[in-house]
Amino acid sequence: MQWKQRCLLLATAGCAALVLGAAEPVTFHKDIEPLLQAHCQGCHRPGEIGPMPLLTYQNTRPWAKAIKEAVLARKMPPWFADSGAQHYLNDASLSDADIQKLTAWADSGAPEGDSADSPAPLKYVDGWTIGQPDLIVEMPHAYEVPPSGTIEYTYVILPTHFTEDRWVTAAEIRPGNRSVMHHAALHVRPPGSKWLREYPTGEPFVPATGTGNELRPSDEWLTNYAPGRPAYGLPPGTAFLVKAGSDFVLQFH
Length: 253
Fold this sequence. Notes:
By secondary structure, the chain is α+β, with helices and mostly antiparallel strands. Helices cover about 20% and strands about 15% of the residues. It has helices spanning about 1-10, 30-40, 55-60, 65-70, 95-105; strands spanning about 155-160, 165-170, 170, 185-190, 220-225, 230-235, 240, 245-250. The model is unreliable at about 1-20 (pLDDT under 50).
């Protein structure tokens, strides 16, 4: 026992001396803020669906323990595809190393660290992300979200009033209140289609089930909206044909 104690206390010949340094602390500005920018702030910022902003240390610190629980359970960021099957370009999930960082930060008291380590804040576009559109089609009336209950997938038919064929290179859906919009999808109904013809234009409705009319055509999707998802634009030199007399069919939830 005395020999072992001597080897631990003294770096004498024949003894292996180990110098163990403390692990570098995980801090908000150096380690956590870049993760929030890459995976969270698209939804967790003012006007988006995230219930609280995660843009600064001050508004993130109170949620440290909740963030830890959400990432350990892989509830956040939401990603339901099996990334082990193949690689996805828009994979929003956190790596195991990222989850370990967030957990260590919460467990250590969520230290702020040096603000000099903070990455440059992201700049979000206020308005149309595809640039000023050539055409804006609006719902004639706002949809009133009920305070409780189940909201079924709802549709509204919006005439384009196109008198000639048009080619669309980019499209974007902008909800009036993004904090309550789960998703929206825009389809094109060409003039010869019988899809949803029994419903009036401009008025929200829920299609009757069992008739097949609630199913959308598979080849007439134009664009969609989901929290944090960028607007859709076609590759250069390509466009989507919208024939004269077509209608837009907006589905939202």
